[in-house]
Amino acid sequence: MNLERKTAIVTGASRGIGRAIALELAKKGADVLLNYNGSVDRAREVKAEIERLGKNAQLYQCDVADYSACETMFRDIFAEHSGLDILVNNAGITRDGLLMRMSEEAFDSVIDTNLKGTFHCMRFAARQMMKQRSGRIINLSSIVGVAGNAGQTNYAASKAGVIGLTKAAAKELASRKITVNAVAPGFIETDMTARLPEKIREQTLLQIPAGSFGKAEDVAHAVVFLASEEAGYITGQVLHVDGGMAM
Ligand code: NAP
Protein backbone atom coordinates (compact mmCIF):
# COMPACT_ATOMS: atom_id res chain seq x y z
CA MET A 1 0.00 0.00 0.00
CA ASN A 2 1.80 3.02 -1.31
CA LEU A 3 0.40 6.52 -0.73
CA GLU A 4 3.27 8.50 -2.28
CA ARG A 5 2.07 11.73 -3.98
CA LYS A 6 -1.28 11.52 -2.17
CA THR A 7 -2.65 14.32 -0.01
CA ALA A 8 -4.81 13.40 2.98
CA ILE A 9 -6.72 15.38 5.58
CA VAL A 10 -7.44 13.89 9.00
CA THR A 11 -9.88 15.67 11.32
CA GLY A 12 -9.10 15.52 15.03
CA ALA A 13 -5.50 14.65 14.27
CA SER A 14 -3.99 16.20 17.40
CA ARG A 15 -4.50 13.17 19.67
CA GLY A 16 -5.50 9.53 19.94
CA ILE A 17 -6.75 7.63 16.89
CA GLY A 18 -6.54 10.68 14.58
CA ARG A 19 -2.88 11.19 15.46
CA ALA A 20 -2.13 7.50 14.77
CA ILE A 21 -3.97 7.67 11.43
CA ALA A 22 -2.05 10.79 10.37
CA LEU A 23 1.29 9.17 11.22
CA GLU A 24 0.42 5.90 9.49
CA LEU A 25 -0.70 7.72 6.31
CA ALA A 26 2.62 9.64 6.32
CA LYS A 27 4.60 6.41 6.84
CA LYS A 28 2.95 5.08 3.69
CA GLY A 29 4.04 8.21 1.79
CA ALA A 30 1.15 10.69 2.01
CA ASP A 31 1.39 14.39 2.81
CA VAL A 32 -1.04 15.03 5.65
CA LEU A 33 -3.20 18.03 6.51
CA LEU A 34 -3.90 17.98 10.24
CA ASN A 35 -7.17 19.38 11.52
CA TYR A 36 -7.51 20.03 15.26
CA ASN A 37 -9.80 22.07 17.47
CA GLY A 38 -8.24 22.98 20.83
CA SER A 39 -4.98 21.04 21.26
CA VAL A 40 -2.58 23.23 19.31
CA ASP A 41 0.61 22.04 21.07
CA ARG A 42 -0.21 18.40 20.47
CA ALA A 43 -1.12 19.11 16.84
CA ARG A 44 2.27 20.80 16.42
CA GLU A 45 3.97 17.68 17.81
CA VAL A 46 2.18 15.50 15.23
CA LYS A 47 3.25 17.91 12.48
CA ALA A 48 6.88 17.68 13.64
CA GLU A 49 6.71 13.86 13.75
CA ILE A 50 5.41 13.74 10.17
CA GLU A 51 8.13 16.12 9.00
CA ARG A 52 10.73 13.87 10.63
CA LEU A 53 9.35 11.11 8.37
CA GLY A 54 10.21 13.35 5.39
CA LYS A 55 6.61 14.17 4.49
CA ASN A 56 4.75 17.48 4.46
CA ALA A 57 2.23 18.31 7.16
CA GLN A 58 0.12 21.41 7.65
CA LEU A 59 -2.13 22.47 10.52
CA TYR A 60 -5.73 23.62 10.12
CA GLN A 61 -7.55 24.75 13.25
CA CYS A 62 -11.32 24.34 12.82
CA ASP A 63 -14.29 23.21 14.87
CA VAL A 64 -15.83 20.64 12.52
CA ALA A 65 -19.25 21.26 14.08
CA ASP A 66 -19.19 24.76 12.55
CA TYR A 67 -20.37 24.66 8.91
CA SER A 68 -18.89 27.98 7.84
CA ALA A 69 -15.58 27.28 9.61
CA CYS A 70 -15.34 24.02 7.61
CA GLU A 71 -16.16 25.89 4.41
CA THR A 72 -13.29 28.31 5.14
CA MET A 73 -10.90 25.48 6.04
CA PHE A 74 -11.53 23.65 2.76
CA ARG A 75 -11.34 26.91 0.78
CA ASP A 76 -7.88 27.47 2.33
CA ILE A 77 -6.88 23.87 1.61
CA PHE A 78 -7.84 24.10 -2.06
CA ALA A 79 -6.08 27.47 -2.40
CA GLU A 80 -2.86 25.92 -1.07
CA HIS A 81 -2.99 22.37 -2.52
CA SER A 82 -3.73 21.17 -6.01
CA GLY A 83 -5.93 18.29 -4.92
CA LEU A 84 -7.21 16.14 -2.10
CA ASP A 85 -7.08 12.35 -2.30
CA ILE A 86 -8.09 11.15 1.15
CA LEU A 87 -10.50 12.51 3.79
CA VAL A 88 -10.60 10.85 7.21
CA ASN A 89 -13.47 12.09 9.41
CA ASN A 90 -12.12 11.16 12.81
CA ALA A 91 -12.97 14.14 15.08
CA GLY A 92 -15.36 13.02 17.78
CA ILE A 93 -16.51 13.63 21.34
CA THR A 94 -18.57 11.93 24.04
CA ARG A 95 -20.95 13.57 26.54
CA ASP A 96 -22.25 10.49 28.38
CA GLY A 97 -25.35 10.37 30.56
CA LEU A 98 -28.54 8.37 30.98
CA LEU A 99 -31.43 9.27 28.66
CA MET A 100 -33.53 10.65 31.53
CA ARG A 101 -30.73 13.01 32.56
CA MET A 102 -29.41 13.92 29.09
CA SER A 103 -29.68 17.64 28.38
CA GLU A 104 -30.63 18.86 24.93
CA GLU A 105 -27.26 20.64 24.83
CA ALA A 106 -25.33 17.39 25.53
CA PHE A 107 -27.30 15.61 22.81
CA ASP A 108 -26.85 18.38 20.26
CA SER A 109 -23.14 18.91 20.86
CA VAL A 110 -22.34 15.24 20.20
CA ILE A 111 -24.53 15.12 17.07
CA ASP A 112 -23.07 18.42 15.85
CA THR A 113 -19.45 17.28 16.17
CA ASN A 114 -19.65 13.58 15.30
CA LEU A 115 -22.40 13.50 12.67
CA LYS A 116 -22.75 17.01 11.27
CA GLY A 117 -18.97 17.50 11.39
CA THR A 118 -18.62 14.44 9.18
CA PHE A 119 -21.30 15.77 6.81
CA HIS A 120 -19.65 19.21 6.63
CA CYS A 121 -16.22 17.86 5.69
CA MET A 122 -17.60 15.29 3.25
CA ARG A 123 -19.63 17.96 1.50
CA PHE A 124 -16.66 20.25 0.87
CA ALA A 125 -14.09 17.52 0.13
CA ALA A 126 -16.38 15.55 -2.19
CA ARG A 127 -16.84 18.56 -4.49
CA GLN A 128 -13.10 18.54 -5.25
CA MET A 129 -12.94 14.72 -5.44
CA MET A 130 -15.81 14.70 -7.95
CA LYS A 131 -13.83 17.07 -10.18
CA GLN A 132 -10.79 14.78 -9.85
CA ARG A 133 -12.94 11.70 -10.43
CA SER A 134 -11.13 9.93 -7.60
CA GLY A 135 -11.06 9.95 -3.83
CA ARG A 136 -11.22 8.02 -0.58
CA ILE A 137 -13.46 9.01 2.31
CA ILE A 138 -13.20 7.11 5.60
CA ASN A 139 -15.53 7.95 8.48
CA LEU A 140 -15.04 6.91 12.09
CA SER A 141 -18.14 5.21 13.45
CA SER A 142 -18.11 2.95 16.53
CA ILE A 143 -19.30 -0.39 17.80
CA VAL A 144 -21.72 1.75 19.84
CA GLY A 145 -23.33 2.96 16.61
CA VAL A 146 -24.07 -0.67 15.70
CA ALA A 147 -24.94 -2.22 19.06
CA GLY A 148 -25.97 0.77 21.24
CA ASN A 149 -24.69 1.38 24.76
CA ALA A 150 -26.44 2.48 27.94
CA GLY A 151 -25.46 6.03 28.84
CA GLN A 152 -24.57 6.95 25.28
CA THR A 153 -27.84 7.65 23.43
CA ASN A 154 -26.33 10.80 21.90
CA TYR A 155 -23.09 9.12 20.89
CA ALA A 156 -24.84 5.96 19.59
CA ALA A 157 -27.22 8.08 17.48
CA SER A 158 -24.30 10.06 16.05
CA LYS A 159 -22.28 6.97 15.18
CA ALA A 160 -25.28 5.09 13.71
CA GLY A 161 -25.92 8.25 11.70
CA VAL A 162 -22.35 8.16 10.40
CA ILE A 163 -23.03 4.66 9.02
CA GLY A 164 -26.15 5.83 7.16
CA LEU A 165 -24.32 8.89 5.87
CA THR A 166 -21.46 6.69 4.68
CA LYS A 167 -23.71 4.28 2.79
CA ALA A 168 -25.82 6.98 1.14
CA ALA A 169 -22.75 8.95 0.04
CA ALA A 170 -21.08 5.74 -1.19
CA LYS A 171 -24.04 5.18 -3.54
CA GLU A 172 -23.96 8.81 -4.74
CA LEU A 173 -20.22 8.96 -5.35
CA ALA A 174 -19.32 5.49 -6.62
CA SER A 175 -19.66 6.42 -10.29
CA ARG A 176 -17.04 9.17 -9.77
CA LYS A 177 -14.54 6.60 -8.44
CA ILE A 178 -14.86 7.91 -4.90
CA THR A 179 -15.17 5.27 -2.21
CA VAL A 180 -16.84 6.01 1.14
CA ASN A 181 -16.39 3.57 4.00
CA ALA A 182 -16.71 3.55 7.78
CA VAL A 183 -14.45 2.04 10.41
CA ALA A 184 -16.12 0.94 13.64
CA PRO A 185 -13.61 0.64 16.48
CA GLY A 186 -14.44 -1.25 19.66
CA PHE A 187 -12.65 -0.16 22.85
CA ILE A 188 -9.41 1.64 21.95
CA GLU A 189 -6.95 3.01 24.54
CA THR A 190 -7.05 6.81 24.10
CA ASP A 191 -7.93 9.90 26.19
CA MET A 192 -11.59 9.19 25.32
CA THR A 193 -11.62 5.81 27.10
CA ALA A 194 -9.01 6.65 29.78
CA ARG A 195 -11.65 8.57 31.76
CA LEU A 196 -14.02 5.58 32.07
CA PRO A 197 -14.32 4.04 35.57
CA GLU A 198 -12.17 0.96 36.25
CA LYS A 199 -15.31 -1.19 36.79
CA ILE A 200 -16.59 -0.38 33.27
CA ARG A 201 -13.16 -1.13 31.79
CA GLU A 202 -13.08 -4.54 33.54
CA GLN A 203 -16.63 -5.41 32.38
CA THR A 204 -15.81 -4.34 28.82
CA LEU A 205 -12.64 -6.42 28.69
CA LEU A 206 -14.71 -9.54 29.44
CA GLN A 207 -16.73 -8.87 26.24
CA ILE A 208 -13.69 -8.81 23.94
CA PRO A 209 -12.85 -12.23 22.47
CA ALA A 210 -9.28 -11.07 21.72
CA GLY A 211 -8.83 -10.45 25.45
CA SER A 212 -7.29 -6.99 25.20
CA PHE A 213 -8.19 -3.40 24.40
CA GLY A 214 -7.22 -2.06 20.99
CA LYS A 215 -4.52 0.48 20.23
CA ALA A 216 -4.92 3.57 18.07
CA GLU A 217 -2.54 1.99 15.56
CA ASP A 218 -4.93 -0.98 15.09
CA VAL A 219 -7.54 1.46 13.78
CA ALA A 220 -4.97 3.39 11.74
CA HIS A 221 -3.94 0.26 9.81
CA ALA A 222 -7.57 -0.37 8.76
CA VAL A 223 -7.95 3.26 7.65
CA VAL A 224 -4.74 3.12 5.60
CA PHE A 225 -6.01 0.01 3.84
CA LEU A 226 -9.33 1.69 2.95
CA ALA A 227 -7.37 4.75 1.73
CA SER A 228 -5.19 2.66 -0.59
CA GLU A 229 -5.49 1.92 -4.30
CA GLU A 230 -5.90 -1.74 -3.35
CA ALA A 231 -9.25 -0.97 -1.66
CA GLY A 232 -10.67 0.70 -4.79
CA TYR A 233 -13.55 -1.77 -5.22
CA ILE A 234 -14.69 -1.55 -1.58
CA THR A 235 -17.35 1.04 -0.81
CA GLY A 236 -20.25 1.54 1.60
CA GLN A 237 -18.78 -0.90 4.09
CA VAL A 238 -18.32 -0.85 7.86
CA LEU A 239 -15.02 -2.38 8.89
CA HIS A 240 -15.04 -3.45 12.55
CA VAL A 241 -11.75 -3.10 14.42
CA ASP A 242 -12.71 -4.46 17.81
CA GLY A 243 -10.98 -7.74 18.67
CA GLY A 244 -14.18 -9.60 17.81
CA MET A 245 -16.40 -7.63 20.21
CA ALA A 246 -19.24 -7.00 17.73
CA MET A 247 -19.61 -10.54 16.32
P1 NAP B 1 -9.80 11.51 21.63
O1 NAP B 1 -8.54 10.89 22.12
O2 NAP B 1 -10.72 12.15 22.62
O3 NAP B 1 -9.42 12.60 20.50
C1 NAP B 1 -10.44 13.31 19.87
C2 NAP B 1 -9.88 14.14 18.74
O4 NAP B 1 -10.98 14.79 18.09
C3 NAP B 1 -8.92 15.22 19.20
O5 NAP B 1 -7.87 15.35 18.27
C4 NAP B 1 -9.78 16.48 19.20
O6 NAP B 1 -9.07 17.66 18.87
C5 NAP B 1 -10.71 16.18 18.04
N1 NAP B 1 -11.95 16.94 18.12
C6 NAP B 1 -12.93 16.87 19.05
N2 NAP B 1 -13.90 17.76 18.77
C7 NAP B 1 -13.53 18.41 17.64
C8 NAP B 1 -14.12 19.42 16.85
N3 NAP B 1 -15.30 19.96 17.18
N4 NAP B 1 -13.46 19.84 15.74
C9 NAP B 1 -12.26 19.31 15.39
N5 NAP B 1 -11.65 18.34 16.12
C10 NAP B 1 -12.28 17.90 17.22
O7 NAP B 1 -10.69 10.45 20.83
P2 NAP B 1 -10.28 9.08 20.12
O8 NAP B 1 -10.49 7.99 21.10
O9 NAP B 1 -8.97 9.23 19.45
O10 NAP B 1 -11.46 8.97 19.05
C11 NAP B 1 -11.29 9.32 17.68
C12 NAP B 1 -12.53 8.89 16.92
O11 NAP B 1 -12.72 7.49 17.06
C13 NAP B 1 -13.82 9.55 17.43
O12 NAP B 1 -14.68 9.82 16.34
C14 NAP B 1 -14.41 8.48 18.32
O13 NAP B 1 -15.80 8.62 18.45
C15 NAP B 1 -14.02 7.22 17.55
N6 NAP B 1 -14.01 6.03 18.38
C16 NAP B 1 -13.17 5.90 19.44
C17 NAP B 1 -13.19 4.73 20.19
C18 NAP B 1 -12.29 4.51 21.37
O14 NAP B 1 -12.44 3.47 22.04
N7 NAP B 1 -11.37 5.39 21.69
C19 NAP B 1 -14.09 3.71 19.86
C20 NAP B 1 -14.94 3.87 18.78
C21 NAP B 1 -14.88 5.03 18.03
P3 NAP B 1 -8.56 18.75 19.97
O15 NAP B 1 -7.97 18.00 21.11
O16 NAP B 1 -7.56 19.53 19.19
O17 NAP B 1 -9.77 19.55 20.36
- What is the name of the CATH superfamily? NAD(P)-binding Rossmann-like Domain
Roughly what is the average pLDDT, rounded to an integer? 98
What name is given to the CATH topology? Rossmann fold
Distance between the termini: 28 Å
> How many discrete structural domains?
1
Biggest beta sheet attributes: 7 strands, parallel
- Name the CATH class: Alpha Beta
Write the layout of secondary structure elements.
Elements: E1 7-10, H1 16-27, E2 31-36, H2 40-52, E3 57-61, H3 67-80, E4 86-89, H4 104-132, E5 135-140, H5 143-147, H6 153-173, E6 178-185, H7 191-194, H8 198-205, H9 216-227, E7 238-241
Parallel strand pairs: 1-2, 1-4, 2-3, 4-5, 5-6, 6-7
The structure holds NADP nicotinamide-adenine-dinucleotide phosphate.
What does the model show?
The chain has 247 residues and is of the alpha/beta class. It has a single domain (7-240), classed as NAD(P)-binding Rossmann-like Domain (Rossmann fold), CATH 3.40.50.720. It contains 9 helices and 7 strands, in the order E-H-E-H-E-H-E-H-E-H-H-E-H-H-H-E. It has helices spanning 16-27, 40-52, 67-80, 104-132, 143-147, 153-173, 191-194, 198-205, 216-227, and strands at residues 7-10, 31-36, 57-61, 86-89, 135-140, 178-185, 238-241. Strands 3-2-1-4-5-6-7 form a 7-stranded parallel β-sheet, sandwiched between helices. It is globular. The chain starts with 6 loop residues before the first strand and ends in a 6-residue tail after the last strand. The model has no long low-confidence stretch (mean pLDDT 98). NADP nicotinamide-adenine-dinucleotide phosphate (NAP) is lined by residues 11-12, 14-18, 35-39, 63-65, 90-93, 113, 117, 140, 142, 185, 187-188, 190-193.
